[in-house]
Amino acid sequence: MTHDSPNIWAPGAEPPLARDFYHGVLDALPTPVMVVDDEGMVVYGNAAMGAVVNLSVERATGTSLMSYVHPEDLAWVGDVFLTLTTAPPARPVPSAWASATVRLITADDEVVAVEVTGTDRLSDESINGVVYHVRPLASQAIERRVVRGMTTGVPTADLLADIVAAVGLPPLDLETAIVSISRDGSFEVFASTHGDLRALLGGARLSAGDLAEAGQSSNVEAFAAADIDGDLGVGLSAAGFVTCWQLPIRSNNMLEPHLVAGSRQHHASDAGIGERLATAADLAAMVLAGRSDLAPLS
Fold first, then answer.
1. Over the stretch 115-126, which tens digit does the pLDDT of each residue have?
2. Is the pTM of this model over 0.70?
3. Least C-beta-crowded within 10 Å: which of 76, 112, 160, 206?
């Protein structure tokens, strides 16, 4: 190693140093990770896992995994855990794997659907537990709810609100809105996540140049907030936004509908954001087709 940091890979490295390193790496990830012992007690969770159940890692440590499982899922989740921890070692990988979709209960008594993949590392002395990777399924659940709602008469405003909520889910934490851009550059906001973006868009007007640019592309476009002309760019920057995205929505009953989003984080790559926005725009286009019950937010 060419820098001055201690080499945790070196033989005889202090275990606390290695532990701090690995915990630091896991806490930097947006992916929820959790470790439980052979009795199902939580011995470790990273910060992202704490965010899933809305509970600090410190408070969750030492509690039972089953205390976060939906009551209707308890029996079979217990069976899966027992099967996982008693399975004979597979070859050539000395561990058993299991994957399941389960409902968790947060500290606020909200239900969160997740896909959990676990691997038995009880025989690994450095871990001595079952390691779980947790993938929230909220975006898929919201998308299914929107599709169902289109066939059951759910108001357009409620469907659009679900769509922008799906875009803004962690770990991206985007503020998102569906707007109509008038020919004079002003906005009407039809759906928005909570936050500053709705107010900023509602009182803003695009410059002629930005208005022309917004209407030229059918793909996701990214803009540095500071590069947007006029009061909108000033307001976005003052509110801490770093990057904004916009994507036209195909529709015949709104004037220039767009999906817009903003982030206060720097994104080295926004491919995942583009995929979320494209999916949301397709859903919004389906919702808006033939709808007449649409009105801007007051």
1. 888 888 877 777
2. no
3. 76
